[in-house]
Q: What sequence folds into this?
């Protein structure tokens, strides 16, 4: 058991998994060139995908065994749940019946590289941590888009129906403007009516791009600093709960082994003592009887 735990925590095990993921990515990339694919090569690739899936099943089994005597701790890690879900979905019959679903599941295995590198995990954790703050900024941006879209429709839909035909087209046009992709073409078209309409576009670019978009960046950077601080705190205190439990289990097992060895040693010493004394002589028995 201890050997499995050590292997699951070793760099060799991690490198093997990274190699399998990169191998899967290479196969998926090669399959995207239909001119190179032949029926015989496709069979070999299907076999390779099956072997990789079997290897991932073994990996999950090793990690679950390494969590003994509390195997459910494996599912406390979100990335482990993601890996296990991919395995279960790949084993379902529906994945074999629908080729597109099978390809998507294979492609999702490449995302496991995020779990293999702590730096990538840190970035993803930062994005997840930023979602609540981003949600409120998204509401603010939605209000901004709605106000400017309705205003733009009423101002320009007759002169420029291509970009301001209705509310949906107006929102798409504003999205084009906020990305700064050829937005001046839309502005010059509106300025044919009046040069003062440039204020509409300039104000939207300033508020939507230079203010709101930078709020997203500020939130991500702030949460990145917090995630880095939390990661450094973990490095300062590497003895996490799982490691402490594993140490306690190992220590308890060692104590039990020592107790058994001490008990066996006492029994052996008692037997040797009795053998040294030997059976009592008849003269000793008679003296003991008189006494």
A:
């Amino acid at each position: 058991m201890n050997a499995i735990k050590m292997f699951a925590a070793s760099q060799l095990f991690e490198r093997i998994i990274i190699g399998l993921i990169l191998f899967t990515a290479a196969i998926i990339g090669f399959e995207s060139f239909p001119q190179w694919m032949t029926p015989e090569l496709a069979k070999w690739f299907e076999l390779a995908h099956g072997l990789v899936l079997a290897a991932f099943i073994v990996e999950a089994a090793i990690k679950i065994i390494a969590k003994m005597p509390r195997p459910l701790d494996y599912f406390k890690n979100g990335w482990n749940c993601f890996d296990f879900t991919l395995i279960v979905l790949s084993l379902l019959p529906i994945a074999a019946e629908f080729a597109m679903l099978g390809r998507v599941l294979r492609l999702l295995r490449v995302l496991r590289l995020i779990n293999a590198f702590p730096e990538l995990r840190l970035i993803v954790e930062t994005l997840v941590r930023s979602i609540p703050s981003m949600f409120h900024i998204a509401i603010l941006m939605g209000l901004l888009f709605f106000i400017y879209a309705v205003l733009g429709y009423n101002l320009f839909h007759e002169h420029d129906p291509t970009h301001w035909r209705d509310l949906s087209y107006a929102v798409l046009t504003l999205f084009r403007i906020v990305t700064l992709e050829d937005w001046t073409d839309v502005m010059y078209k509106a300025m044919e009516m009046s040069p003062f309409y440039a204020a509409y576009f300039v104000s939207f670019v300033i508020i939507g791009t230079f203010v709101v978009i930078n709020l997203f960046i500020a939130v991500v950077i702030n949460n990145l600093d917090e995630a880095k601080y939390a990661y450094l705190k973990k490095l300062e205190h590497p003895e996490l709960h799982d490691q402490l439990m594993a140490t306690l289990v190992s220590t308890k097992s060692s104590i039990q082994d020592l107790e058994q060895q001490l008990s066996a040693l006492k029994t052996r010493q008692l037997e040797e003592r009795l053998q040294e004394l030997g059976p009592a002589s008849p003269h000793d028995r008679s003296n003991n009887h008189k006494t």
Notes: The radius of gyration is 35 Å. The mean pLDDT is 82. The domain at 2-116 is CATH 1.20.120.350 (Four Helix Bundle (Hemerythrin (Met), subunit A)).
